[in-house]
Design goal:
With 453 residues, the protein is an all-alpha fold. 76% of the residues lie in helices and 1% in strands. A two-stranded antiparallel sheet has the order 1-2. Bound molecules: phenylalanine. The site of phenylalanine has 15 residues, from helix 1, helix 2, helix 10 and helix 14.
């Protein structure tokens, strides 16, 4: 980023924004959450609904958030305040900051699991006949170990945000993300060539809509929001570091495309193996940690690939986590006048503490369960954040652009800066009508199904 005349940092290059936004989007959401959500919601039918959600809600809203940030040059709270002064709309920005806080609190727990697996996967792949599910259960039901990895992950996130330099991480991401990509391809090859992989491929590719309920729909939009980092101001914040000559519609499409591709590849790496090796697709949040080590165990040099994979998954999680912490930190800096370093450390600590119940949800608090929402505390945080807070943030920011700030301003802002292609009536229609109506309906049906069925 560069200092500009107003004193706000800006991305140094066009690639800077795209990489940071793609780094935010691509993370545990693609490789951890997408496959287990697909498995819990019936396979290919879920994917079809997910792809529709990406097109109708995800892409329009990504553009919407970026322009709110760029037009205002502010953090989420400041953005709404700048574009609608003297109105209560800044509260939507407040909701975004709160959501980022909650998501990071449990995101760091799962990211901690990935870090732990950088060495656990070696043990798991080197011990013939080991029960991969129980290795995972053993890890998450311990008390101190997951906490230590969670703390390490938070410390790394805080360190990067406190430094305030996206350049360091950006350079690494440019090198590391392609490696993760290649690794996924290798895993796919191994997975689809396992004897019995066909059943998994069919499950992944042949939709059966008979099992689709309101919960499935809500699950798909929660996944779309989570995976694209939507609805909690990350893209408002990253957009606020853009200049008016930066292109938006094409870059946003690029981010959406990359994110979707990585999710689909992760599913393709997992489902054939899940069926071939006799695991349950609906196993929930443990899916990746149980299935992949079993696949690595079936590969020559599997241990090495395993180490590399979980290391890269940790990096992918880190580039997402920094966007979560950046939102909360930017709010303290822009709105409360804090110094960056203090803001990052303070928030990092608070978020770590709020995440502890989720970490301990498999040990100390294992009897706590909220069957309608999720099976354990981590699932409950996840459900609340992604099925309620994110879609809510999405609707409100669409209504804001469509009716309060004004769709003309929004369309103008979206096309400013030499668009690869221009957004016009179609996009405006989606933001004003389709996004709010669709989300309200799906939330209503999904919440009803979650509690009363
Ligand atoms: N999109 C990230 C992922 O897929 C998670 C995330 C959600 C990051 C919301 C920022 C904001 O892992």
């Amino acid at each position: 980023m560069d200092e500009n005349s107003k004193g706000r940092e800006h991305w140094a290059t066009r690639a800077g924004f795209v990489l940071a936004a793609a780094g935010s989007a691509i993370g545990l959401g693609n490789i951890w959450r997408f496959p287990y959500m697909t498995g819990e919601h019936g396979g290919a039918a879920f994917i079809v609904i997910y792809l529709i959600a990406i097109l109708l809600l995800g892409y329009p809203l990504i553009v919407n958030e970026i322009i709110l940030g760029r037009a205002s040059q502010r953090d989420p709270v400041g953005a709404f305040r700048a574009l609608a002064p003297n109105s209560p709309w800044w509260l939507v920005g407040g909701l975004a900051v709160f959501t980022g806080f909650i998501i990071l609190s449990y995101y760091a727990v799962v990211a901690g699991w990935s870090l732990a697996y950088v060495y656990k996967v070696v043990i798991a792949t080197q011990s013939p006949g080991i029960d991969h599910a129980s290795v995972f259960t053993h890890h998450i039901t311990s008390v101190w170990e997951p906490i230590a990895w969670q703390a390490l992950f938070m410390a790394l996130t805080v360190g990067i945000i406190a430094a305030g330099v996206v350049k360091g991480i950006q350079r690494w991401v440019t090198i590391l993300m392609p490696i993760l990509f290649v690794l996924l391809i290798i895993l796919i090859i191994r997975s689809v060539t396992l004897p019995g992989a066909g059943a998994g491929l069919a499950y992944y590719l042949k939709p059966d809509f008979s099992e689709v309920t309101g919960r499935t729909l809500l699950g798909a939009i929660s996944q779309a929001f989570f995976s694209l980092s939507l609805g909690m101001g990350a893209l408002i914040t990253y957009g606020s570091y853009l200049n008016s000559k930066d292109e938006i519609p094409g870059n946003a499409a690029y981010v959406v495309g990359l994110d979707t591709l990585v999710a689909l590849l992760a599913g393709l790496a997992l489902f054939p193996a899940i069926f071939a090796l006799g695991f349950e697709p609906g196993a929930g949040p443990g899916l990746v940690f149980i299935t992949l080590p079993a696949v690595f165990a079936q590969m020559p040099l599997g241990g090495i690939f395993g180490v590399l994979f979980f290391f890269l998954l940790g990096i992918a999680a880190l580039t997402s986590a920094i966007s979560l912490l950046e939102v909360v930190t930017a709010w303290l800096i822009d709105e409360k006048g804090w110094r960056r370093r203090n803001a990052a450390i303070f928030m990092g600590l608070l978020i770590f503490i709020v995440g502890l119940p989720a970490t301990l949800g498999y040990s100390v608090f294992k009897d706590f369960s909220f069957p309608a929402l999720g099976t354990d505390l981590l699932d409950t945080y996840d459900w609340f954040a992604n099925s309620i807070l994110l879609p809510l943030g999405g609707i409100l920011s669409a209504i804001f652009a469509g009716y309060i700030w004004g769709i003309k301003n929004a369309v103008h802002e979206a096309n400013k800066g030499g668009a690869f292609f221009r957004l016009g009536r179609g996009w405006a229609f989606l933001i004003r009508y389709i996004v709010p109506v669709l989300i309200v309906i799906i939330m209503a049906v999904g919440i009803y199904d979650s509690f009363f069925k």
